[in-house]
Amino acid sequence: MSRPALAIGEALVDVIDSPNGSMSRPGGSPANVAIGLARLGVPTELLTALADDTYGELVKAWFEDSGVVVERNSARLDRMSIARAVLDAGGAARYELDIVWTLPAVPPTAIADRPLVHVGSLALFLEPGANEVERIVEHAASTDVPVAVDANIRPSVLTDPASARARFESIAERASVVKLSDEDAAFLYPDVAEHDVVRHLHDLGGATPAARRVVALTLGARGALLRCADGDVRATAPQVRVVDTIGAGDSFMSGMLARLLKYERSAWQKLPTVVDVGRYAARCAAITVGREGADPPRRNEMVAP
């Protein structure tokens, strides 16, 4: 790789309330993906917004421990964003969000020659930063830098499915890799069958032809559906004891991207590649749900090479 991969989006602190007590952990979906990529051996930078408060120092130490570099055009905040996650007895999370998202104008040189630009979650939708994210995606796609997008919908913040769907699709049609969860699909595409959602996203018009797009729909314990130009793939979820589900989708995404980057881009649309990618990503997610918080695996924890 000529330059590190670039993830773009919010970093925050998860304040987790569970039957076992309360704890604070760094998180945020795009930050989790950056951490996951770096831990899997992919040099990664994160373009984000940070504060210099106590929570901000916690997040920065987390980045340093995993090898994520904060991209120099990142924004400065007065206070860190917080996501309060309330866990039920089965480990499922309900979120209450206090998020600030902004970005300065990012020069084209920050995007050039990247092996991948990943965007996702609240950074796609919350102003004033969302418009800058869309501008970055347009530039990346126009210069043939692969774009990856993860919807990661938060219904407590996004109350209008139609406008959220329009914004998501404006990004997804320019992307080479598109991911959403079954919960995202239920919000954005109610009453549409899972296979039909995957086909719709794969066949979106726009700057990136469908023949160069990989789509994944994660289904929790049911695994994931993936689609590429050569056809459909079903990835099975490994059987594990679930501690909590925080960060599982982000680990799937980082595993998916890290594995794709091991292949030439021309192979991304081949069925054997996507079978391997889906399997690897599912293992990453399974490791994450087996421990507390968004704690994606490191490369040496993965059983397969």
UniProtKB/TrEMBL annotation:
Q: Which residues form a coiled coil?
A: none
Q: Tell me the domain of life.
A: Bacteria
The record's GO molecular-function terms, alphabetically, read:
kinase activity
Q: Which InterPro entries match?
A: Carboh/pur_kinase_PfkB_CS (IPR002173), PfkB_Carbo_kinase (IPR050306), PfkB_dom (IPR011611), Ribokinase-like (IPR029056)
User: Any idea which UniProt keywords this protein has?
Assistant: ATP-binding, Kinase, Nucleotide-binding, Transferase
Q: Which residues form the Carbohydrate kinase PfkB domain?
A: 25-296
Matching CDD domains? bac_FRK
Q: Which Pfam families match?
A: PfkB (PF00294)
Which family is it part of? Belongs to the carbohydrate kinase PfkB family.
PANTHER family in the cross-refs: HEXOKINASE FAMILY MEMBER, PSEUDOURIDINE KINASE-RELATED
How is this protein named in the record?
Carbohydrate kinase
